[in-house]
Amino acid sequence: MKQSNTKVKLSETIDSKYIQQHLANERTYLAWIRTAIAICGLGFLVANLHHAIRGELTPLYNEFATGIGLGSILFGVIIIIFATINYLDKRKGINSQTFRAPRALIIWVSVLVMVTIVIVAFYFILLV
């Protein structure tokens, strides 16, 4: 008896046609998640530092530090939400070959990250 050398062809999915693009999309998504975690960590840093020296600060500093901490955490959660939406939109665009780079999201998040950095820097400058 001869063995058949016919290969079983696996069904090709739409995703498998664009593997590299999907992997790049996943790496970008994970980079956004790391950015969100870093922004949240910055908020925790300010809150912990603030609690360590709280006795020396005025009530205005207390409100400012609380605002930075909560704002950073909220901003991190917003980044995760928008990154997930962006990832799913890119996935659909890659598969349908109608991908467009998200210019507005990049500008919006960049401005908010810069504003967060300036606010945190202002807080640390006022402490000195």
TrEMBL record:
Signal peptide: none annotated. Keywords: Cell membrane, Membrane, Transmembrane, Transmembrane helix. It is found in: Cell membrane. Residues 21-91 form the DUF202 domain. It is a multi-pass membrane protein. The chain crosses the membrane at residues 29-52, 64-85, 105-126. It holds the Pfam family DUF202. PANTHER family: DUF202 DOMAIN-CONTAINING PROTEIN, FGR18P. This is DUF202 domain-containing protein. It comes from Bacillus yunxiaonensis. The lineage of its organism: Bacteria, Bacillati, Bacillota, Bacilli, Bacillales.
